[in-house]
Specification:
single chain, Serine Threonine Protein Phosphatase 5, Tetratricopeptide repeat, disordered N terminus
Length: 479
């Protein structure tokens, strides 16, 4: 009896130890910070012209540089550099496949070309699948994804057979296993990878991301994996960051439920272990949703210290500046973001909105045009293209933009109202029909003053109104 009680106490004590969190330790976090700084330096000194070399068909030079990076890694250089070098080929632009095929033929199937082509097939697989949930993804999309994943695995396994320490291959195999929901394969891949790279942080990071509950894992699995990894912490201080992963996952779970305050608490706990960029970005998003723009800006500043040329981060900080009324700072961030990535529509829309509110309709219209070059159905840009061009007396273009907007969203009350105003400026009697459509789709409660004003105007014009008993909430683009 006593032996049984003693055994039960031991089990309870062991489980309680397992359930307890290891309290964050500032000195261990600082070691992670310094290690991450080394990764940043390693990325800055490496070459990023691999796609240019590929397009120029300089296959021998590609092989030379990639083999040198792998050799440096095997001699103790930074693992992040060699991982990132091959992930540059993770492009989903299909015309690159011809270049990769030529490279494989030219090099007689050398491991470098096979890994690079495998990375490309992984990107194509995700493109073919699409970004929607599985219940909204067709069987054809899934089959196309599986086809490219299969081709990728052939290339990656062939490369690893020749160069087993090419760690990027294991990272890509893990991505494929995640995509296909192959849990047993994930564990097998990780075990094999850690035999050749026993102290790797980034390969462990790839594995732990697949342990999230949304991928079929659990918080308990994450916690155990992170704690097991601490055995190699002396050799690789980055591994301490893994202890924060479960807290970040908890943050993501409540964030999805729109419980942003709780999410911030979890992300803040995670960040006490390591300044992981994704966690900072997620917390910044939660601050934005709560209109806490000073704190959002603080997190974005920290991220931009690491990645000063990240166009999306600059755009996000610019938006925070807009909400704080710091327009010169917002304009500087937005313009720099567009220099880095001209396709960021929300950035050009924000610049257009700033100049529109300042009365510079010509400049505003120019930025809305920039959005429409890359996103011709952007409803926000189309609407303000109509508004700003109307103010510039360019009525034909204003009408064209608003008609296009109505093709995209035929029940958008804002667009109908602005379209009606443009037609009225042209003395077109059809403006009455457009304003009647505004009344049909407008939210009467939210737009009571405008609704009643237009209703009164139409009555004065003896326009017959047959308003529905219910109203539709209008849609509008985010500034």
């Amino acid at each position: 009896m006593y032996k049984l009680l003693y055994s039960l106490l031991i089990i309870v004590f062991t489980l309680s130890l397992f359930a307890c969190d290891e309290a964050p330790q500032p000195d261990l976090r600082q070691a992670v910070v310094e290690a991450f700084a080394q990764d940043t330096i390693a990325l800055k000194v490496m070459s990023y012209d691999f796609l240019s070399l590929l397009e120029a068909r300089r296959f021998d030079e590609l092989d030379r540089q990639l083999i040198e990076l792998q050799k440096n890694y095997e001699q103790g250089a930074n693992e992040w550099a060699v991982l990132e070098s091959f992930l540059i080929f993770n492009t989903n632009k299909e015309h690159y496949l011809t270049y990769f095929d030529e490279w494989v033929d030219h090099s007689d199937g050398r491991w470098t070309s096979r890994l690079a082509r495998g990375s490309h097939h992984v990107a194509l697989a995700w493109k073919k699948r699409g970004a929607k949930f599985i219940n909204k993804t067709s069987q054809e999309q899934i089959d196309n994804m599986s086809h490219h994943f299969s081709l990728a695995k052939q290339d990656i396994n062939a490369a690893l057979a020749k160069t087993p320490r090419a760690i990027v291959g294991y990272k890509m195999l893990h991505q494929i296993a995640n995509g296909m929901g192959e849990d047993e394969d994930k564990l097998k891949i990780t075990k094999t990878a850690l035999k050749v790279a026993p102290h790797s942080y980034y390969l462990r990071w790839q594995h732990i991301s697949g342990l999230q509950p949304k991928w079929g894992g659990s918080i308990q699995q994450i916690r155990k994996f992170a704690r097991d990894a601490q055995k190699s912490r002396q050799q690789n201080p980055r591994l301490y960051a893994l202890l924060g992963y479960e807290h970040a996952v908890k943050g993501d779970q409540v964030e999805r439920k729109k419980q942003f305050e709780k999410a911030i608490e979890h992300y803040t706990t995670a960040l006490k272990y390591a300044p992981v960029g994704g966690w900072l970005r997620d917390r910044a998003y939660c601050y934005k949703k709560l209109n806490r723009f000073d704190e959002q800006t603080r997190d974005l500043n920290a991220l931009l210290e690491i990645s000063p040329d990240d166009a999306d981060l600059l755009g996000r900080r610019g938006y925070a500046y807009v909400r704080k009324g710091h327009y010169p700072s917002a304009i500087a961030d937005f313009e720099r973001a567009l220099e880095l990535d001209a396709q960021l529509g929300y950035v050009s829309n924000n610049l257009g909105w700033i100049y529109y509110t300042q009365g510079d309709n010509k400049k505003a219209a120019g930025y809305f045009d920039k959005t429409l070059v890359h996103d011709p159905n952007n409803i926000y840009a189309l609407t303000y293209c109509g508004i700003t061009n109307a103010r510039l007396a360019l009525l034909d273009k204003a009408e064209s933009c608003l008609l296009h907007a109505l093709e995209v969203e035929p029940e958008n009350a804002d667009v109908w109202r602005n379209y009606g105003e443009v037609l009225h400026m042209q003395d077109n009697p059809k403006h009455l029909d457009a304003l009647a459509s505004y009344l049909k789709y407008a939210d009467r409660k939210k737009e009571r003053e405008m609704f009643n004003k237009i209703k009164k105007y139409l009555a004065e014009q003896n326009y017959p109104l047959l308003l529905p008993g219910s109203s539709t909430t209008r849609k509008s683009g985010e500034k």
